[in-house]
Design a protein that fits this description.
Largest sheet: 2 strands, antiparallel
Strand order of the largest sheet: 1-2
Number of strands: 2
Order of helices and strands: HEEHHHHHHHHHH
Helix content: over 70%
Shape: globular
Radius of gyration: 19 Å
Number of helices: 11
Amino acid sequence: MKFSKISFRLLVNMIVKLLFFVSIIKISSIFKINFILGSYRALFSGSSAAVPLAGLFGGGFLSFVIFVFAILFRYLIFGISSLHILAFYVPGLFASLYMSSENIVIRLFLPALCMILFILNPIGLQAFAYSFYWLIPIVIYFIKTKNIFLHALGSTFVAHAVGSVIWIYTVGMSAEVWNSLIPIVFLERLAIASAIVAFYKLFNLLGNKLKKRSPVSLVVFPVINFAGTRRV
C-alpha cells in the first residue's frame, strides 16, 4: 500500500511537471528572438530558454517525454516533410539533458563531435570558424563551475551545435551565409542564456513563495516539488 501511494505521488508529480513545462514552453514561444540560421521563416523564441529548464528542474526523463510529445504533436498536426524539422526539436532535448546532469557525453563529447561533423561537411569546412563557438561548453566542462549563467551558456551552445549540424546536412546554405552569422550567434546565445537565468530565478522565487503559503503549499508544492529547491 505504501509503495502504491509513493508510485501514485510520483506519477502525479511527473504529470504536473509535464503540464507546467509544456505550458511555459508554449507561452514563451510567443516571444521571438531571431531568425534561425539565416532563415526568414523560422525564428528562435523564448522556448529556447524554457526548454532547458525542464531538464534542470524535472530531470532527463521529463525532458525526453516533452521531446516525444512535441514530435508527436508536430507529426499529427503538420506532418514531417523534411529532416530539417528535427533542428527545431532535437537541440532543445540536448540542451535540457545538459542541464539535467553533468554527463561527460553531453557536456564534452557531444560539442566536440558536432565540431567534427560540421567541419567534415564541405560547406562546413569553408565556414569552420563557425564551429569554434562549441569550444565554449567544452571549456565550461573543465571549469567545473556552479555558476548558473555558465551552465545556461553551455546548454544553449550545445543546442546550437546540435541544431547547426542537423541544419548543414539537411538544408542547402552557402558558407558565406554561415560565416555572416558568426557575430550574430554570440548575441543570440547571450540573450538565450540570460533568459534561462531569468526563468531559473523566477521558478526558484515561485517555489519559495509557495513554501510560505498554507494551505496552497501543502497541496501544490509537494506535488510540483521543483521550484525553490534546485541549485546547480
